[in-house]
Amino acid sequence: MTKRASRSRCLRALACGVLALALPLAAGASDVGLAKSDPLYPVPAAEAPRGVTPNWIDHIDLYATGSQMIGQGGWEGWNGDPNVGALTTAAQARSAPNSIEVVGATDLVHQYAGYTSGTWTFTAWQYIPTGFTGQSYFILLNTYPATVNGNWSFQVCADAAGGVVRDDVGGTCSGAGATLPLIFDQWVEIKVVVNLDTDTQTVTYGGQQLFNGPWSTHISATGGAVNIAAVDLFANTGTSVFYDDISLSNLSFLDGFESGDTREWHTTVAE
Ligand SMILES: [Ca+2]
């Protein structure tokens, strides 16, 4: 199974267009240190991160270790499916104590709202242990719920058999699309800089550019929107891949962020 083909799971699931989102009933804790509360899932003021609306970051550290991410911090299952979650874990953590373990059936989504202009940087830190098998996906959507391929703006698959990460424009995690060597046993930054004013994106993996190109039409010439709608962490039956310190921000990074990483500003702040 591949992501876009499985994205075509939306297409093959005839009810896709009418599936109601099972939004969490109550907002879980968001995280601190960067920005404000999630516009879709506001958190109590005391927990709201600092910064400019609608910057967002989740260090995964305010949730109980071993707890289900669905229903916390605005995270949900794909199309509201309660059976495609992921647990927080202390087995790996870029910021202590937790990361998210994406494995097996995991298809974990976080929605965003209000990102329709300007330049935004989406970052996620990924850890893939030696011995990883499968084709695990990190995905950004311009429309959610997603019903046609154009709703996908970027999907990178970690392809164990090929030993690469791939800009999976073909939806099969093979063949087409730029690649970089897969990096194991360390935290690797996936950074997607999205310029919604020019409808373009630039993606780097471990500091190396994977590709740059259009945003709303990267996967398909039709059906896309100039919008950042959701992230999707999809295991696609693969073995464990860990994610930590996930953010969406338009802060100015005059300290070298654009050429470096987010290490400095992704430090968990206890408030
Ligand atoms: Ca963490």
Give the gist of this structure:
By secondary structure, this protein is mainly beta.
Number of strands: 15
Helix/strand-derived class? mainly beta
CATH topological fold name: Jelly Rolls
Q: Any idea what the shape is?
A: globular
Kindly state the percentage of residues in helix.
under 10%
Hey, roughly how much beta strand do the residues contain? 25-35%
CATH C-level label = Mainly Beta
**CATH architecture descriptor name:** Sandwich
The gyration radius over C-alpha positions equals: 17 Å
Number of structural units classed as domains: 1
Low-confidence stretches: 1-52, 253-271
Could you characterize the architecture of this molecule?
With about 270 residues, the protein is mainly β. The protein has a single domain (about 5-250), classed as Sandwich (Jelly Rolls). The protein contains 1 helix and 15 strands, in the order H-E-E-E-E-E-E-E-E-E-E-E-E-E-E-E. The chain is globular. Mean pLDDT is about 80; it is low at about 1-50 and about 255-270. Calcium ion (CA) binds near residues 60 and 94.
